[in-house]
User: Which sequence fits this backbone?
């Protein structure tokens, strides 16, 4: 061992063993190959960095093959550089295969960037969700129904990708479903995995729509297996249902001008603009309520005519506040931003057998 070390040291300390140097330089292919190899070793990391790295290295080794074949005339140079170039080309083919395998269709890629990327959902988890729906994008034509109330079974969960869907019940408009909203989230949450049911509303496409759909059984199996995906769907469905409830809440107007909040039915706010508009009309109604009947009642058939109630004496106390408070007309659509299909709540004073909400002047009195 020591003899070998001493021999190596002598070779290093002694001058070069070459008896003579070539006076001419190598050809252009040799220098081009080395320049390309230098550029290749300056590549970065990641998928695209690997493309850069192996692309330049493969090109450099091909130049070395040409140099060894035409200038150096060495079989060993040609074989080694050919093997290295082939290895680089195989690595490039593997990278292309991985990219094509990981690439999502355009609709699913846009869905990921819009809905899942802001929540930092891992791409691998998103691919599991996409595989559950078999990567199929379904369509609805104009006025085609997705579900009919009382008939269509609840056997899937769908997410709208494009278009607009109208939700109605008994022919009355409820709200719209817009892109990247679930089409049947309330129905999905209303049933246990082992239960069955039918839609209570009708969903109709107002425009050409595209959506994705997960079969109920397959999605339940995925949620049971993947806890992260289960929590993700729970958050998305909860947010979607709350958005639908708020959309309904904006259309709940009472006849007397109060807008009720579906979260706390005892709380409400008076629509100031509607109250100011209805002020003169309310004063007129107040005058009509307190104005005594000056002229005798018109003649009516005996079987229909009724005796008017006795009015209280002048010295009596004033009637309760709710009797002097006139009903306000329903606010105009232009003031509140509602459309002609807004829901109307019946006056709570007309509900028999219960104490009226309008008997109280404020929320505090009602809560007490």
Assistant:
């Amino acid at each position: 061992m020591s003899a070998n070390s001493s021999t190596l040291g002598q070779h290093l300390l002694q001058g070069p063993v070459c008896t003579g140097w070539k006076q001419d330089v190598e050809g252009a292919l040799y220098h081009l190959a080395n320049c390309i190899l230098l550029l290749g070793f300056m590549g970065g990391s990641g998928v695209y960095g690997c493309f850069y790295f192996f692309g330049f290295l493969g090109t450099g080794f091909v130049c070395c093959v040409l140099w060894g074949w035409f200038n150096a005339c060495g079989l060993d140079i040609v074989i080694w550089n050919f093997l290295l170039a082939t290895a680089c080309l195989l690595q490039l083919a593997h990278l292309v295969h991985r990219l094509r395998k990981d690439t999502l269709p355009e609709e699913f890629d846009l869905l990921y960037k819009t809905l899942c990327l802001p929540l930092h959902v891992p791409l691998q988890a998103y691919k599991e969700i996409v595989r559950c729906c078999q990567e199929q994008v379904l369509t609805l034509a104009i006025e085609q129904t997705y579900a009919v109330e009382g008939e269509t079974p609840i056997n899937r969960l769908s997410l709208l990708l494009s278009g607009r869907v109208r939700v109605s019940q008994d022919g009355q408009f409820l709200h719209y479903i817009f892109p990247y909203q679930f089409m049947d989230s309330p129905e999905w949450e209303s049933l246990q995995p082992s239960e069955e049911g039918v839609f209570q509303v009708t969903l109709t496409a107002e425009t050409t729509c595209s959506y994705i759909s997960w079969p109920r059984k397959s999605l339940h199996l995925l949620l049971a297996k993947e806890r992260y995906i289960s929590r993700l769907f729970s958050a998305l469905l909860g947010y979607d249902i709350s958005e639908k409830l708020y959309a309904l809440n904006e259309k709940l107007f009472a006849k007397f001008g109060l807008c009720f909040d579906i979260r706390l039915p005892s709380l409400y706010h008076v629509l100031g603009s509607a109250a100011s508009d209805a002020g003169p009309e309310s004063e007129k109604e107040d005058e009509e309520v307190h104005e005594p009947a000056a002229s005798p009642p018109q003649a009516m058939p005996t079987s229909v005519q009724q005796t008017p109630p006795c009015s209280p004496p002048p010295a009596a106390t004033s009637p309760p506040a709710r009797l002097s408070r006139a009903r306000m007309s329903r606010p105009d659509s232009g003031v509140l931003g509602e459309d002609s299909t807004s829901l109307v709540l019946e006056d709570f004073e007309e509900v028999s057998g219960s104490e009226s909400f309008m008997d109280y002047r404020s929320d505090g009195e009602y809560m007490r």
Notes: Residues 264-276, 282-358, 362-368 have pLDDT under 50 and may be disordered. The CA atoms of residues 154 and 198 lie 5 Å apart. DSSP finds 14 helices and eleven strands in the chain. The radius of gyration is 40 Å.
